[in-house]
Amino acid sequence: MNDDVVLLFGGNSSERRVSVASAQNVSRLLSSAALWFWSPSGAVHRAAAEELLAHGDTFTRDFAPKAGAAFPTLADALESADARGRAFLLALHGGDGENGTVQRALEARHLAFTGSGSAASARAFDKAQTKALAAAKGVAVADARVLTPKDAKATAAALDELLASHPRWVLKPLADGSSHGLVHLKAQAQVPEAAQVLAGLGLTYLAEVFIEGRELTVGVVDEGSGPLALPVSEVRFAPDAAFDYAGKYLGRGTEEITPAQLSDAEREAAQRLAVATHQAVGCEGYSRTDMILTAQGPVLLEINTLPGLTKASFIPQQLAAAGKDLKAFLEAQLELGRKRAARGPR
């Protein structure tokens, strides 16, 4: 039974619909958990399982509970008697749900929660900081530049400079999920449109040199005695496809293979990189690291501290490939969260 568990999902990030899909999958396994939906407006609603599971077109349509808000803000929800003594399973992705903000609020109230603590979450959410920490531990990283928000004309000039130094770049928000706002810059003709996109979003971007190779992703799970790498997954692309929101969640132009077809040496190198990055950032519970496998070995792209838990997500795929039960994994993560709450944040 999980009567003391709150499944927290939603939020106002660009990945809030993925969060709802994760909550749908988790709620089927932890049927007695309370469902708290954090709406884009900031209010928290108590959701009914029947209503959540009946919600369709999850990746293209927002979830809107029929019941009014139970709490005007997440802070009010966490301060309430309903939160006291509960363990929070975080089915949040992106934004304040993953950048350390929610984790910091939970830590301040000594509430148990799944995933990494606030400090590690903040470090992981900043892709440049992740790369620096991992590189210091010997992990291979792609050459990158940070692009600060500017008007379209200044942004175009910055993109011209990038193309003058290397013919192809991948542009993604520095501190947000890569599903939204991803731009592949590979020709001068793309600069005006890309500059408009970046200037319009007003986000700090990380520009990485495009690396030729196979795109891999590896989950890492803490089981109490240290981090364990899960089987490796590979993402294969149709011509001109990208692993953006449509590719990840709508299946447009991508194919996911778990376990990836790799040599023992390639698999072990990918798993070592994932564990090394998990440890360099200071993650706890579980994470998922994305990388490119080149002829010289794997190169780090980024790490996710609250990767998706939808039916089709990589962590469930990899747990299944390792012969591990998803419900048991979730219960173990809740227990790790309870132990951390008892000892206090590190």
Helical coverage, percent range? 25-40%
Question: What is the CATH architecture descriptor of the largest domain?
Answer: 2-Layer Sandwich
In the CATH scheme, what's the topology name of the largest domain?
D-amino Acid Aminotransferase, Chain A, domain 1
What's the CATH first level of the largest domain? Alpha Beta
Share of β-strand residues: 15-25%
What is the C-alpha radius of gyration, as a whole number of Å?
Answer: 20 Å
Shape: globular
Would you report the number of β strands? 14
Could you state the order of secondary-structure elements as H and E? EHEEHHEHEHHEHEEHEEEHEHEEHH
Please report the distance between the alpha carbons of the first and last residues: 29 Å
Strand order of the largest sheet: 3-2-1-4-5
Structure summary:
By secondary structure, the protein is of the alpha+beta class.
How does this structure look, described?
- The chain is an alpha+beta fold and 346 residues long.
- The protein is built from 12 helices and 14 strands.
- The protein has 3 domains: 5-113, Rossmann fold; 124-140 and 212-343, D-amino Acid Aminotransferase, Chain A, domain 1 (2-Layer Sandwich); 144-207, 2-Layer Sandwich (Dna Ligase, domain 1), CATH 3.30.1490.
- It has helices at residues 16-29, 49-54, 74-79, 101-108, 118-125, 127-136, 152-165, 191-201, 245-249, 264-281, 314-321, 326-343, and strands at 5-10, 34-38, 44-47, 87-91, 112-113, 144-147, 169-173, 183-185, 205-209, 214-222, 227-237, 254-257, 286-294, 297-304.
- The strands form 3 sheets. It has a 5-stranded mixed beta sheet, with helices on both faces. Strands 12-11-10-13-14 form a 5-stranded antiparallel beta sheet.
- A hairpin with a 4-residue loop joins strand 10 (214-222) and strand 11 (227-237).
- Helix 4 runs antiparallel to helix 5, helix 6 packs across helix 10 and helix 7 crosses helix 8 (191-201).
- The two termini are 29 Å apart.
